[in-house]
Each structure stands twice: as C-alpha cells, then as structure tokens.
Amino acid sequence: MRFPLPRHLAACLLVLSALLPAVPAALAQDGGILPVTEAYQLRADAGAPGTLKLHWTIAPDYYLYRGRMKFTAGPGVTLGEARLPPGEKHVDPYLGPVETYHHAVDAAIPYTVAPGTTRLRVDVQYQGCHEVEPKICYPPHTEHLDLPLPAAAVSTPPTDTTPTSPAGDNPLGAALGKLGNAPAGAIEGRALPPGQAFRFAALAQDPHHLLLQWTMPKDYYVYRDHIALRLKDANGLRLGEPAWPAGGVVHKDAEYGDVTVYFGQLELPVPVEGDLGGRRQLTLEASFLGCQDGGVCYPLMTRDVTVDLAGGALARGVAAPSAHAAASAAAAETETPAPLRTSLLAALLLALAGGLVLNLMPCVLPVLSIKAVSLLESGEDPARRRRHALAYTAGVLCTFAAVGLAIVALRTGGHALGWGAQLQQPLLVGALACVIFALGLSMSGVTQFGAALGNVGGTLASRAGMAGDFFTGVLAVVVASPCTAPFMGGALAYAFAAPPLHALLVFLALGAGLALPFLLVGFVPALARRLPKPGRWMETLKQVLAFPMYLTAAWLAWVLANQRGADAVGLLLVAMVLLALALWWSERSRGRGAVRALALLPALLVLLSLYGVSRLAPPAMGVQAEAGVVPYSARKLAELRAAGTPVFVDMTADWCITCKANEHAVLDTAAFRDLLRRTGTVYMKGDWTNEDPAITAFLQRYHSPGVPLYVVFPKGGGEGRPLPTVLTSGLLERALGETP
Q1: Which of 307, 332, 357 is the last residue of a domain?
Q2: Count of domains in the chain?
C-alpha cells in the first residue's frame, strides 16, 4: 500500500534538495533511491513536423510536478506553449495549489525554426520526489535534447509568425466580417503568416445576433471543434450556441483523427443572450486553430473584436495578447487596425494647418532661407515675386504628390512605408548631406553653380529663375520629412489608410500649407511692401544663412553614424571634400571647357564614396542599453500587459527632429524618471532609425504615419492610448497618472 508524502514536507524537501544537490546522489549510491534519469525516463520524438513530443515513464513511488516543468529553446528554435494534461490536484499550505503526475505523462510542444536550422535543440527541465522512505525530492534536473529536424520542418519558411503544427486541445475561435479572398503572395506550398492566412471580422445583424466570419486562401482551413468564443466585460451577457453552417468537410487529421473543418470561408451566426441594458458595443474574444492543407498547422490564435450593436458596421479583429497567448504576440502587431474615424474634410484642414506649421520646424528652416533670399532679391517687381512664389509652390506640390503616389502604390502592393522612412536609407542620407553642404558653399560665395552641373540637386536649387525656385520647393519637402509638426499626425494617419484619391488630396493640402506663406507674399502687395529693400546687406545675410546649412549637413552625418557607424561618416567626409574640390575647380576654370571637364573626376569619386556608404552593414540595431529603458519587443510588451503593468511606449528615430526635441525637453529629465517610479510605469523604447518590421507593424496598428509615436498602456492590461506628437511634462503627468 502506498502512502503519499505530506505536501508540506514535500515543500521543505524541495528547498533542502535545491540547497544540497548531492543528497539524492549519495542516497542513490546507497541503493535508497534511483538516479533521476532512471526515476523519470524521458523519451523525445521530433518526427512530426512542427511538434516536439515528450514522454516520461515514472517509476513506482515517484511523481513529477506539473508546475516545475520548463522548456527552453536552443539557437534558431522558437517554442510555443507546451500542452500538458491535467495532473492530480492538491493544495499544499506551503506550495499552494499543485498538480503531480504518477506512472507516465506526455507533453507536446509546438515549435518553429529559423532559416538554415537543421537540429532541434531544446533544454527540458523537470523536478519530482520519491514519496516513500527514504523520502527525498530531487533538485531541478535539465536534459539537453539535440534532435534532427524532419525534412518538412526544415523546408518551412520560418518568420516571426511562421505557423507550427497544431497547438493541441487549446480551444480556438475567430471572429468576423467580410474580407477579401486570397492575399497577394499566397503561393502554393508556402505558408502565409497567420494574419494573412486567417482574416476575420464581425458585424451585428441585430443587437442579439452576431455574424462571425473567417476568410482564408485556397487550401487553408479551420477546425470546427476547436473554436472558443467568450464575451469580455459582459456583465451577465453570454453567447448562445453557434449555428454551424452546412459545408463542413470531414478531414482525416494525424493529430485528432476524423474532424470537421471549413475551407475558404466560414460564416458563423452566434446569438447573444441576456439583457443588453442599453449597451451599444460588445467585445468578443475568439480563439481558433487552422492549417494549410498538406502543409503546416498554426499555433493558438487569440483575437479581440469590438462589435457595434447598431448593426451593419464591420469590425475587424485585433490579435489580443494575454497570459496564455503571449507566444502569439508578434502576430498581434500585424493585424488590421480598426477603421479611422476622421473625415476627409477634417483631414484636409489638419493637413493645411500642419503644412503651415511645418515652416517653423527646424528641419525646414535652413532650406527656407534660400527662398527668403530669393524673395528679397525680387525687390519691388510684383510679377517677379509671383513667378518666384508659383514656381516654389509647384515644386512643393509636385513633390508631395510624388510622395503620396509612391506611398499609395507601395501600400497597394502590400509594402509598409511611413513618413520619413526614406531617411532610413543611408545612401539618401549621405546624398542629402552632400546637397546641403554644396548649397552652403554656394551661399557662402565659395562657388556659383552653372548650367553645366544642372543635373545636381544643389545646382538645381541654386539656379536663378523659376527652375531654381521649383527645385528649392522639392528640397524643402525632402528635408521636411524628418519632422512631424502639430496637426500633421492626424492628417497623415488618415492619408495612410484612406482611398488613393483621398490620400493624394491630403498630401496636396500639406504642400499647400507649406507653400502658403510664400504665396501670400507673392500675391498680397501689402505683405510684399513689408519686405526690406534690396541692398548690399543681402550678400552678408546670404553668407550668414549658409551656416544653418552646414549644421544641417553635420546633423545628417550624425544620423549616418548611427545607421552605419564611423566608417560611413569617414566616407561621407571624403565625399564632401571631393565635392568641394569639384566645385572649386569648376569655378576656377570657368570659361575653359576642356580644363573645366576635369571637375567630373572628383564628382565621380563622390558617387563612388556614397556607393561605399550604401554597402556598409548596419551596426547592432535597436535601442542601446539605457538605465530604466526596456528595448521594444512585441512579446515583452504582451507579457507586461498580461501582468497588468502600465507601459509607456516611445517609438523614435535618430533622424526625427521632433523625437529629439521631446527627448531633450521632457523624456530625458529627472522629472520624467520620477514620474515613472511613482506610477510604476515601464518605459519601453523602439528605434526606427533603420528599417524594423516589428516597429513598422506597431506604427500601423496605431494609425501612425511615422515617428514619433507615444502610446500609454494602462494598469490592468487595457488597450493603448496614443499621445500627441509634441509632449509636455503636464501632458505626461496626466497620461501616466491615469494608468494606476
């Protein structure tokens, strides 16, 4: 007859055995107990692609703790949530609720692998006790598994959201509405990310009847019997029995046997039972399992959707990080965000105001000095002033239109692009620094550009007449991209999610705002009369205004250093010296065509140096270690939210002037650090200086066209609340003060 070991004694023995790991070994030598690997014989099987199966054979009079099992992935391996059966439940006064296994236990762990991984390396840790004399508990024991991967697992294209084999009996559900068919890039045999493979949405047919829908590409399916739905914060409401439609297919599944699945599309009516009490919205949590026929299966997907009970309004689901679904947090950031509520008229007004304020931003002021000088030089000639203003406006509008069309085209093709994202390209940063430097040399009087170099950006912006004004407008838009002025955020967010025509109108409104001051000076005589009279003092002013251009070039060199390191700055400085040489020689040999052509040699070497910059590999990406700052990770954010910890997320970039101004004035201050301590808020920062798909997905989720983006996640794990792009201490005090 077997007498179970008292649980409080087991707790004491666990502690003692952890402190004295030699005790079990000594007893084993005396024949009192078995060695740990004989008491718990572990067998591993990686034959099924995407699933690691484990089996313990437990000797008589021994048991394993369910809660003491831990699984750690090796290089190139990502593990999902382990599937373990329920154990024998006990309540121990020291350990609290525990579950134990006798005789045998099986576990299944879904996994994905990185490209090039051929071995499945996993550390398996477990702990158990001997429950009869001599009573002893083993210290935690770890076995290092090194298994060959099956061919199907090696060939699966692995990404952060790469699907794995079925996640087991975890209930899974979905939601809702009518979405498109197979997404672009659905290539036969290649598994899609979960957000593309299983699109979902919901709508209310009436306040008491919801319609849930999954839409999947060809050869993808969901399991009928592995769908779980629940209402969040329902206050007495509940979901009735789903009305399963005809069309389910009986499918032979290696894991579950004969199951019913739905291919292509599943529309599932679900009743809502109980008194709504005037509620206008419901939040539904849905989980589900799905597979690619003949391919891989996906881990547990859990998503939230908020449905408007007025009916007819489509609501798209958002992946919901939770304690049991933290492993799917990366997929959460790729879900389609909720529709924007801004109207076209409001977006146009915001864009006009934002473009107007953009004239005051530090990134634009150096280029505007060129335009200011040209207006002053126009003197009292009204026709000349109007030509200057119209040509400059044309350059601004054409460039904004080109940016808008490029963004629309790229997003239609499934690519992500944000405001200022072009400065993530080191080649463009280096070229822009050279153009700004050349303009500074011209304003300083070192050189004067001629028609022979008309194809160079600096030349175009410095030429006299309408061509120079036009390309000054082009350059103003290019250098404005690192700045996000007040009012711009809402307008750009609308443009990045709006229909193509509406998006183009918003970008043109931004351009109109940027050009408006010069249009007013050109066409309103009263304003023109307030301009100073031309004179010799203007040459001095032009030379003084060259120094902001040099500072802008220095700032771009600093940005390049953060993107590609010191070698990139060295190549940029070489390019600038060669550019100065080419311009000096061109000016000195003016009128001597053959001799002047020698300036092309250093000009070509400039291009070679910039090409060298583009070939440099980036340094270690991400936020550098800072005291009290957690680098952004979708998984870490999901864990903090699941734990109920308030989080302040700061998405920034080195080329973002607004970001740096906020850091200097608010975020890098003792007052802000004290505020974090008082509210228990975690400060999480993401660096978008270089391309980062995870940060791009986060920006898209919160409808942000670029950086900066500041989001406060309250205590208790609620949804994040974006803050304005320009921060103040009072604003943060109010925002974080509401998180506890």
Answers
A1: 332
A2: 4
